Every structure is written in structure tokens, then in C-alpha cells.
Amino acid sequence: MAGDPVSNVEAAPEETQCAPTEASGIVEVLEARDVPLGGLRALQVRRTLPQRARTLIGAWCFADHYGPVEVPATGGMDVPPHPHTGLQTVSWLFSGEVEHRDSLGSHALIRPGEMNLMTGGRGIAHSEVSTPDTELLHGVQLWVALPEAHRDAERDFQHYVPEVVEVFGAEIRVFLGSLAGAASPVRTYTPLLGAQIDLEPNAAITLAVDPAFEHGLLVDAGDVRLGGTVVRPAELGYVAAGLDVLTLSNCSDEPARTILLGGPPFDEAIVMWWNFVARNHDDIVQAREEWEAGSERFGEVEGYPGRRLPAPPLPNAVIMPRRNPPVQEPVEAVAEPVVRRVDAERLYEMAIDGFRAGLTAYRDRGEQRVFYHTEVDKAHSRKGLAATLVEQALNDARATGKRIVPVCPYVARFIKKHPEFDDVTDQPTPQLLHWLDAELTAQ
Ligand code: MN
């Protein structure tokens, strides 16, 4: 938000590396944490869901992102048979090949651009091993929480290869739900969107989306601007429901690759522990006991050359259900600006949702507070924000016993329209302007 300090612009456009786009709601950037995947040679994955700030996006309750890793060096992926309940798993690769075996009897190869959707409602077990031919392993594994009515769904395994939709500057593969005129035939238990979106260098696309959906954009490569925020590789940008378009811009000179997830907010609280999605602690205890006892609930995985994964010990505490923080409305609807004085910077800032969206800067000269520059971030230049900022700044100046000197033309116009500040306003004199000039040049 830096600018020429005496430029007195009401709404100075923020400098961006990208073509400016319309602000389209709050984007919350969720960072990944590194987690070793189970197995002998632990593959590191980057997990963006769940985390403290967010449990779910729609029914998407888990997002692991891994690679690219060189398999000869790391050993690749080798996850022995392990159980699941209450969820569907989506395996999606960018490169490499993974051999999947499950207790339904499925034996499949997971390949780039091909979705494998496994349903483990009441219980399923599976193993995942990268194939010996794989040199570079790179992809995502995502989980979908099943709603109460279907959380004991039968075991199922589906394979789907979406067509590639070409739009100007981008290629889209819709594996679940519908987007850009493509629709996946794969059945889900709640409305969902899952798509890979590849953007050419510096390309931007605007996509019509369901306003009932909240969305998450997981960036694999490139810096991608979503709404007003740049989401970087391994980050997940979250946008609340309420928007009917999303604009994605690749701010990098390299191709960008992203996964867009969406769905209506999932309003049930869930308990996630190890590989189980359940509703309460007792469900988890029971599922764990049944896995450890070799119960038919999970069945047998044929053909994996090794032992199955034992369940880790339960934590001492009761595992509490998790749900999302209260639903955030898009910025236009509710985010109220907060104005505060920042003494160290000699300005009043206006924050929207924790981010500085505007400022009015001053210098104190004895009992006078000289306002010389006001600006509001272009992304937030909606009606009335600058007025709110200046009004609260002037009220604070008055309350702290200061007299107001409006050098900034915006503040001057504001005072003309609000004579209630006349009694504490001094007009700038040539002498004061000279002092201000020296004051601002000196730093
Ligand atoms: Mn699994």
C-alpha cells in the first residue's frame, strides 16, 4: 500500500504482479503441515485438511498432497493394508503409478488423470504401493466424509477418467461434480466438486460455480490468485459459500496446476482419528477394536506382500467431535471494518478480516494532528469505507485532545461535509505545509 507520501489519493490502486481482478470474497489461506505417511519407508505428505482452522470444505475432510518425489531415492509409497470407516477416498495422481488392493477384491492401478473413488462406509481395508516402474510420484489423496444417512454405506470402488476440457488459457479435468460444462457421472452422497485445473503462464479464467458451495483451491504449482489473494504451492485457499463465480489467475511465468474442491458446508460434527471418520469417541474405540481383532467388518486385502498396519494406541483423552468454525460470509456481506490508531507508524489503519485494507496517515505538530494522506486498497474500495476510516480517525483525534489539520484533500472534503468537526479543525497554513514537507522528507 506504499505510495507517494503526499499523493493524497483516496483510493490508490495496490500494485500487483497480476492483472487486478475483482475481489470475490475472503480467501483464507491454509498452510500445509508435513506428515510422514505410514509404512516402512515413510513418504512425507503435505496435509492441509483437517487443521485447527478448518475441518472440512463441503464434505471434503482430508487433503494430502505429496511429491514430486523420486521413487528410487525415497522408496515411494508403501502403505500396508489399513482400515477405513465413514468415508470415501479419492486418489488422484499427477505422475507415477500406484497399485491399489482392497477387501472388496478390487485390484487397480491408479494413474495420472484417472480417479479412483473407494467407499468405506461401515468398513473397508486397502493397501497402496507405488509400482516399480514409477520414477516420480506426485499427487493427492482426498477424503470425503459420508453424511449420517450413508455413513455405513457398502464397500465400493469406482474408476473414472474425466475428459480434458480446454478453455482459453486452461485445461480442466472434472472428476467429481460439474464445472466448465463438464459433469462427472460418479455418484456421491453429498453434492461435491473435485477438479484439476491447469493454467498456462499468466492465464486467468473465470468459472461459474454453485453459490451454495464453499471452495478450496489446493495449489500444486504456480502462484495462483484467487479473488484478491495469491495462493502458493502446497497452500489451500478457502472461500466461503455465496459466490457464483471464481476467478483464478496464474501470477507466475510457469504453468500452474491446482485442485479445486467444493461442496455445500457439511453441518455434522465428525470425529476423525487415524483412518476412521465417525461421530463420537465410542465409534472410534469400537472400529479400532474390530480392526485389531481381524473382524469381518473390514475384510481381508489379498495379495499384499506383508503385514497389515496395526492401529496406534488410543489417546488417553476422549476424542472430541470437530466441526468447522462458524460459517464466514463473503466480505461484501458481513466483514466489518475495524479502525485503530497505529502509533508506531503514525497512521490509522482500517482492517477487514484481519488485513489492512486502508489507512490515513498523520504527523503530530504540537496539539495539531496533520492528516496528509488517505488510501483504501482497491480490492476494498466499496462505498463508504474511506468515510468510515476518516470519521473514526477524526473522532479519535478529538478524543485525544488533538486539533485536526486536513492537508489530505479527501479529509478536507470529508470535513466540509461534516461541520461537526469544525470546532476542532485548523486549516493548513503555508508555514504548516512547509513544516510537513520537511517532516516527510526527513525520514
Ligand atoms: Mn487409505
Topology:
Blueprint: E1 27-30, E2 33-36, E3 44-49, E4 60-70, H1 71-74, E5 78-84, E6 87-95, E7 98-102, E8 107-110, E9 115-120, E10 124-130, E11 136-145, E12 156-160, E13 164-167, E14 170-176, E15 178-179, E16 182-183, E17 193-199, E18 204-208, E19 214-221, E20 224-226, E21 229-231, E22 236-239, E23 245-250, E24 256-263, E25 271-273, E26 276-278, H2 281-292, E27 338-342, E28 347-352, E29 355-365, E30 368-376, H3 385-399, E31 403-406, H4 409-417, H5 430-442
Indicate the percent of residues in helices: 10-25%
* Bound chemical compounds: manganese (II) ion
Number of domains: 2
Query: In which order are the strands of the major sheet placed?
Result: 1-22-19-24-17-14-13
CATH class of the largest domain: Mainly Beta
Q: Biggest sheet, open or closed, and with what strands and sense?
A: 7 strands, antiparallel
Instruction: State which percent range the strand residues make up.
Output: 35-45%
Q: What coarse outline follows from CA principal-axis ratios?
A: elongated
Indicate the CATH topology of the largest domain: Jelly Rolls
Give the overall average pLDDT: 88
